[in-house]
Amino acid sequence: MTDTNSLPYYPRFIFNFNDDKCFSTGDLDEFQYIKEHKQDYKISRFVPGQKVDVTFVNENDESEVGTYLVNRIEIPQIKYDLDEPTYGLNMNDCTCIFGKDKKWIMEIYVYFDLVQ
Predict the structure, then answer these.
(1) C-alpha angle with apex 82: 24 to 104, nearest 5 degrees?
(2) 3-state percent breakdown (helix, strand, coil) of the chain, nearest 5
(3) How far apart are CA 85 and CA 101, in angstroms?
(4) Alpha-carbon gap, residue 107 to 77, rounded angstroms
(5) Among residues 3, 6, 1, which one has the least CA distance to residue 102?
(6) What are phi and psi of 30, to 5 degrees?
(7) Which residue, 3, 48, 88, 115, could crosslink 67 as a Cys pair with Cβ 3.0–4.6 Å?
(8) Successive 10-residue mean pLDDT values, the chain, 116 residues
């Protein structure tokens, strides 16, 4: 088995939440903080209407879990040349990037709405 997280490139996922939270990653290890609602297995998909639990660390270094619905998913850019510079931020990305920095082959935006 080839572990996909060991690849030097991967899609960059940008997670935008309607309660002003945002983070992005190309590192699958960071997906451990997003789970299907009330489940403990690895997330394997995102679909509109899906309910997920997301763990954030607050300013006191305490874990907080929020429940969200996937609102929509957008893929605004697909790379055809991996040698084109792709490291770092772009103006549509979050300022909060987690995990290993990798060359990204596409951007996938996932928008979430907080469940009250």
Answers:
(1) 5
(2) 10, 45, 45
(3) 13
(4) 6
(5) 6
(6) -75, -15
(7) 115
(8) 76 91 88 94 94 92 95 88 64 65 83 93
